[in-house]
Amino acid sequence: MKFSGKIILSLIIALSVLSTQAQVTKKTPVKPKSSSTVKKTKSATTVKATKKVDVPMPDSTRPETRVKITTDMGEIIVKLYNKTPLHRDNFIKLVEAHFYDSLLFHRIINGFMIQGGDPESKNAKPGIQLGKGDVGYKIPAEFDSTLYHKKGALAAARNNNPEKASSGCQFYIVQGKKYSDEELDMISINNGLQFSSARRMTYKMLGGTPKLDMEYTVFGEVESGLEVVDMIAMAPKGNYDRPTTDIHMRMEVLPEIKNVK
What do you get for the CA distance between the two ends of the chain, in Å? Predict the structure, then answer.
């Protein structure tokens, strides 16, 4: 079969175009998104999100927060319990906001406790009754049978609400007294409390106020400065159990554990 020159030339051009397109397709293929690429992206996103999430440590391993209370009579170091996280976190929040700075220990009873944290006590006139000030909210009770009113216990004050919810800011530190077995037996019967051998020994040897157990939330304890608590409790006082000379406080979370999450 014979072909003209024009036909032959057209065939050569067509074959050349097809060859060029095949080479372009081979060199620059269009790759669709694969499932492995999507999974990798999701995996990377998950890792990034995990790094940003602040996962709280379990109570059993979290370091216990300590707060220094500086008073006109000396320093008191208190340890906050992890078993009462609502009270712990609220107290830390107020301390870091300098809420307690310049407030007074407005109520003291020797052999019982010292109380403070009333915001109305700041710059209060001498002799007036204090103890009604608050922050406008309450903290749900956090009772634990292992946390009790031994001497040096840090606890939350409250009014007579049926839920036994705590004041958002007022607190007291137990001074108390030592109890005999007979006295503890009577309290156990009257208040429906069961004293373990360890708690009974603490009340006999160290002292405290066992009648308040499971009535007011204990959320910490004094680690050093019990002698300062005694000095404040024994200070001269006037009406309403208020010291005749103002006893101021200032608080700070100790630096070595301030940033523990």
Answer: 91
